[in-house]
Amino acid sequence: MTDPALLILASLAEGDKHGYAMMEDIEQFSGVRLGPGTLYGAITRLEQAGWIRPIRQKDRRQPYTITTGGRAHLAGELAAIDRVVKAGQRRLKPA
Amino acid sequence: MRRLAHWLVSLYPKAWKQRYGDEFHALLDDCSPDRLKVAGIVKGSLVMRIAELFQSPVRSAAVCAGLGAIVALAWVLTLPKQFRSEGVVSAPSTEHTFAAVQKALHSEQVAGFIRRNRLVFGDAREPVVSWDTIEEFRRNATFGTTAGLAGTSMRVAFSHPDPAKAQAVAREFQVAMIDLGQGLQAVSLANRPLSSERRAFGLPLLAGLSAGAILGLAASRILRRVRE
User: Do B23 and A23 touch (CB under 8 A)?
Assistant: First the structure.
């Protein structure tokens, strides 16, 4: 799973974070290091879709939180990936 | 590093900068972008600028029309220069000249012109006699008649990138008309062109502008549907 939007949603599902914290968290749980351009391109799309929203900031770093719609979208995407993973694993088992 | 971050933020569209500029700057201060990340940011800003451009159908059409015009002009400049050799024949009437032209432009005659003068059209390296090359030959040959009291005179011209070949073919064509027609005479033999014809920019420019504008409108519409 390397879709930046999904990685961001998965990161925010655990708690609110600003951009740099998301980058660190995503690298830790997925091994994928998102660049700043990729991260903010995805943040822009996610905010436009209403799946994340900014919350009150303490300094120049802007934290984001996942919305209810974002959680539902993430759950749907993860379920679809899970189906593919399970089917793939079943087919890999020797007959 | 601050200057680099400032420059990278400045690459993005104005509306995006107003909304995300400060926080993006803060992120760049935190993560000190290396060359790869800088390349990613430049690419991301380009994608956003292109997406912004296609949001407005008018702006999208205008920019694409401009690009279409540039491509059309570049295409015209890549075409080889054409030299036009011209001679004049006289005939008792217009009917006599047209009958002679028809006979001289007969496929067998044209095939002979192509073979004898080793005329090469398109990307071919050797002369090829095919329906396409015969048609190409006919496109390069032009005629214009002037009727008067003493009869009709006709300008016979042939255009080719090689001025010597343009003259040779135009002369051979004149001779063929005189031999095959009735009562035709050479008034002046085809000349050796000294300068090339002026390139015709008008039609390709118009085609490039129109095609670009149509593509720009279509792209804007498709992107709007994808976003919806």
Answer: no
CA–CA separation, B141 and B186 (whole Å) = 17
CB atoms within 10 A of CB B169: 25
Contacts of A37 in chain B (CB under 8 A): 37, 40-45
Residue A36 amino acid letter: P
State the smallest CA–CA distance between residue B60 and chain A in angstroms.
21
B151 or A19, higher pLDDT: A19
Q: What are phi and psi of B85, to 5 degrees?
A: -100, 135
State whether residue B199 sits within 8 Å of chain A by CB. no
Three-class SS state of A63: strand
**What's the confidence (pLDDT) of residue A1?**
59
* Count of helices and strands (H, E) across chain B: 9, 4
Whether residue B48 lies within 8 A of chain A, CB to CB, comes out as yes
pTM above 0.90, yes or no: no
* Residue A26 touches partner B, C-beta closer than 8 Å: no
Kindly report the number of other CB atoms within 10 A of residue B180's CB atom.
Answer: 16
Short-list B169, B145, B155, CA closest to B82:
B169
Strands (E) across A1-95 are located at 17-18, 52-54, 63-66
What is the ipTM metric for this complex?
0.87
Task: Please name the residue of chain A whose CA is at the shortest distance from the CA of residue B45.
Answer: A37
> What phi and psi, each to the nearest 5 degrees, are found at residue B158?
-135, 135
